[in-house]
TrEMBL record:
Pfam families: TetR_C_43, TetR_N. Gene3D superfamilies: Tetracycline Repressor, domain 2. InterPro entries: Homeodomain-like_sf, HTH-type_TetR-like_transc_reg, HTH_TetR, Tet_transcr_reg_TetR-rel_C_sf, TetR_SbtR-like_C. Keywords: DNA-binding, Transcription, Transcription regulation. This is Helix-turn-helix domain-containing protein. Residues 19-78 form the HTH tetR-type domain. It comes from the Bacteria.
Amino acid sequence: MTATTTAQRKAPRPRADALRNRERIVTAASEMFTEFGPDVPLDEIARRAGVGNATVYRNFPDRDALVREVVCSVMDRTAEAAELALAATGDAFGALERFVHTAADERITALCPMVQGTFDQYHPDLVAARERMEQLVEQLMDRARAAGQLRGDVSVGDLMVAVAQLSRPPAGTGCLTLDGFVHRTLQLFLDGLRAPARSHLPGAALTMEDLRQA
């Protein structure tokens, strides 16, 4: 047995209370970023999480580290929703519908301003979470398309940009008070995705890479 292996096995596991504190910080940060934007003071996040400032900085040495964790956690939950939809039997388009509404509830649109500017969009953790989510959504759409229920001229980029735009609250309105309207509008969009298509879409189907390069 190597010294490295021995050291790895003896490395202490994070205590349960430390893990709970980290989860509380990420949850509080996600809520406050959604409500107030990416520049909310870290002291306020600590206060909502019910922990001290030192605990925040012990887990996340700077704002970018916390933002990255929040974005990755939202994408992970969105990917898990896609996995659940893929595991469902029966109506393939119905599974896609359930996923879209769940993705909107994650308020992924509110995180968009946080992945701009100086934020490292190519951090390995972020890239891995994003690729996992995109692959699962693509599988979900492929299944609905193979069942003849999804129009053939749309792709993952079309779906995700629509979810982002349609779940974004209009200027001057509260992000947390429009859920009913968001889901109503999303359902109108989903009805437009059903095959057979009733119109011709201009341009080509959007991929996520198209959106990143736009």
